[in-house]
Every structure is written in structure tokens, then in C-alpha cells.
Amino acid sequence: MARVLITGASRGIGRGIAVELSKRGHEVVATARDLSSLDDIPAAQRLQLDVTNQPSVDAAVAAAGQVDVLINNAGATVRAPLETVPLDEVTRLFELNTFGALRVAQAVLPQMRERGSGRIAFISSVQGRIAIPLIAPYSASKWALEGIAEGLAIEVRHFGVEVQVFEPGAVSSGGAERAKVFLDENDPYFPMLEQLAGFRTEPVTVDEFATVVADAITNTEVPFRVPVGKAAIAQLRARKAAPETEPFVAAPLNW
After folding, report:
1. Does residue 244 fall inside a structural domain?
2. In total, how many domains does the chain have?
3. By three-state DSSP, how is residue 84 classified?
4. Would you state the pLDDT for residue 176?
5. Is 240 exposed, middle or buried (0-12, 13-18, 19+ CB in 10 A)?
6. DSSP class of 96
7. In this structure, is residue 235 part of a structural domain?
8. Average pLDDT, integer, range 106-123
9. Residue 243 located in a structural domain
């Protein structure tokens, strides 16, 4: 069994993965910014960890000890047109979704490299390869994350460390409902916001997503990119088939 450190384990996808891995007998190190939010998480260890804060990351990784698997899950999203999205909010998303994931990976990699084994899983999204209107700041942070993950996978495979990127479509985790929204009904882009539900067809459940991740941890034949759910597979297939000369539109917008 593996010792698995999970960021953002207090709710949603992170919580689901922690529960599933614990059921399978893995030693889960559950982390979150608010330590009290982990009280009911089945885990071998619970630690405070803010992925945007280097001292917090260093302290948590030191306290965790050996980490066989890192699941970089902490993240957030937003709803806003690029014309008016506050740049401070874009910076926040990158600090959390992108730089935060790299920060934790950097903290665990020395021990994995020296040991000659380990696995780092990045929780991305189909939006790491498809830009969706009004969610483009989130998409950009995930595109950057995928670039980091791809480069890292090439660099660390020589030391016995595996890297995977999981790309779900919509997940019924509550993340979309918690997203900050920076437009109202008087905004000229508001009609587009009302049609975003069309992108969330056939969401996978948290349990379904957690099962895919848990299966991958003990599987030595996992591809670098792992689309999760029928909708994700269909969207990514359509994106690959679309001409590169035009922006890809996953669903029609009529307004």
C-alpha cells in the first residue's frame, strides 16, 4: 500500500479521493488550508497545507515523511469575461491551480528522486486543453499546469518517478457552484453565462472520478493523460479533430 498526500482534501474531489484510497488500505495524508475541515476525513494523518504558501508547504511535507504518491488537487474556478475579469483574480487562480501544484511537487520530488520511485498526479480538466468562454482564466491556469506536468514527466521519468494528468469534464463536486462570478444580468456577456450549463452534460460523480484515480495509483500501465468520463473523452476527441486555424467551440452559443 502507498502513502498518499492529497492537497485540497476537505471537500469535493479531494475528499472523494481520500475516502476511496482509505477504503483500499492506503495511508492517506489529507491536507487543507483549514485543518478543522479534515476532522471527518478517514486518514492516517491530517495536516494544514496552503499550496500558495511556501513555509506551509515545507512544513506539511516534512511532517508527512515518506510520500509515495502526491495528488495535486487543490484548485478553484471563476466565471467572468476576459474583458473585465479582475487581474488579481487571475493571479489568484494561477497561484492556486498552477504555481501551488508545482510548489508541492517541488517539495516532494527530492525524496522521490533519491528513492528512485514515486508518482505525482495532477488533477487538471478538459479545460486544460479546451478554453470555455467565461471560464477562460481557469482554462489558462490548467493549460499552464499541463505544460508543467508534461515537462516534469519527461524530466523525472529517468529517476523512476511517474507523472499523470487527470482530465475530467464536468464533475458533480460543487466546485462550479462555489465559483466566484464577476458579471450580473446587466453585463453584455450575461446571455453566454446562462448557456454554460450546456457544457456540463453528463457530469461524472465524485465517486466515479475517485475510483479512476485510485485505480491508477497501483497500475503501472497508466498513460500520461487520463480523460475521465464519456463527455471528457468526446470533447477531447472533437477538439483533436477540429482545425487548428479556428477556435474550438465545444457547443453552440446562440445569443
Report:
1. no
2. 1
3. coil
4. 66
5. exposed
6. I
7. no
8. 98
9. no
Structural domain span for residue 205:
3-228
What distance in Å separates the CA atoms of residue 235 and residue 130, rounded to the nearest whole number? Answer: 8
Catalytic residues: 10, 124, 138, 142
Strands (E), 39-130: 45-48, 69-72, 78-79, 118-123
Contacts within 8 Å (CB) and 24+ apart, 212-216: 212/166, 213/17, 213/20, 213/71, 213/121, 213/123, 213/166, 214/17, 214/20, 214/21, 214/24, 214/26, 216/121, 216/164, 216/166
Residue 236 lies in a domain: no
Please write the tens of the pLDDT for every residue from 86-100. 999 999 999 999 999
Task: Judge if pTM exceeds 0.85.
Answer: yes
Dihedral angle of Cα 175, 179, 185, 189, to the nearest 10 degrees: -90
- SS3 category, 29: strand
Q: What is the CATH number of the domain that holds 76?
A: 3.40.50.720
In sequence order, the 6+-apart residues with CB closer than 8 A to the CB of 217 are: 2, 4, 21, 26, 69, 119, 121
| Cα separation, 56 vs 50, whole angstroms | 6
Reported as a single tens digit per residue, the pLDDT across 35-55 is 999 999 999 999 999 999 999
